[in-house]
């Protein structure tokens, strides 16, 4: 009997060992999850980018764990068109979307609502490949993934057809998508009909008293559900701040108001033909005169408002990343933090975006891919937003039909794992009829007419990102070289 008992115990132990090994192998083969965090209007003014006056500890920590891109450039310096390029992986040269915020559902470049055999957008590809896809906040252009106008009119159809298994953006007391996007305290909104349109407000006490705090809370709830699920997940989490209006908890304003921050390095109006009147910014009610440029003390106050919102949204990112770690999901989850474009913050007497210049085109990009990305790597490689789609395809290996749905970017995996220091020689961006090309030191922007440059501006961005001195007439050889790099452009 003792012999039989011993044999049974040995067999049971062996079975458990093999079962555990099978479980480990199954876990190893499980496709990586994706947490894609989009942050509206986030320029590269963060601690991890070398700005110690900015309080961004969560993003700084993520950058130390992953790869920080210092030369990431968006395709278009406005929300909707930039996100269209992100989600479709198509260059504006091929999609025709060079400005429109309604590109997802209007005009010749709108996504088809008809179901196709493959995938048109990034989240749709992952959904068709067995991922649970969830959207919280602003990933496409609308604040919750549904098509409504600012005033609430519209049919509420999915902005990106077939992309998301669930749209679970919490509305709180603001009741609807654009309400939470343009939110003030206590359920009020720029679009609620009351006429409120203050540039800044810092009155609430709790993070969850404002929409971004609710987004983080909902994301943590979903991560807990994913923990017990059987599918890999693709979670799109789109935070609103630091987009206008500048609204955050009182603690963030008080923290930023107590530190010294730098003024805009070149606060006077530029001679660039792409300078604009900053209509989005000046449409808000201000407690000081709307001068152009703003007086120095007013400019600094406004810059503090932006940085207070950065501090607030950084804290929300930190909460979500902490939950990811505590749930044991971080080791198999790729995290991407992406800014949909840069932002003028009084630089060159400009505010907001909407110009094919360095400040508006350069935005935050951080990628942490467990087992692939080199922790703490800071790369100056020229990369574009359209590179993110092929990068996630490369990292996750979903069932992608390249011939049926071509992508215009390149995978950044060789940068992440240190195999390469660059993937391209130039980065291209678009704005209406203008094309902007960036090499490692210069930015050339040309307005084209029938493929020929009607006007050309060249700036040495290795000295300053601001368009201070147009060198186009002094460096004609370089101008012709950069013009020739632009597809379909005749330099003469």
Automatic annotation (TrEMBL):
Signal peptide start and end residues: 1-21
Record domain Sulfatase N-terminal: where: 32-395
Top-level taxon of origin: Bacteria
Top-tier EC class: hydrolase
InterPro entries: Alkaline_phosphatase_core_sf, IDS, Sulfatase_N
Named cofactor requirement(s): Ca(2+)
Residue ranges that the Swiss-Prot or TrEMBL entry lists as coiled coil: none
GO molecular function per UniProt: arylsulfatase activity; iduronate-2-sulfatase activity; metal ion binding
GO cellular component: cytoplasm
EC code(s) of this entry: 3.1.6.1
Keywords, comma-separated and alphabetical: Calcium, Hydrolase, Metal-binding, Signal
Homology family: Belongs to the sulfatase family.
Name of this protein: Arylsulfatase
Organism of provenance: Gimesia chilikensis
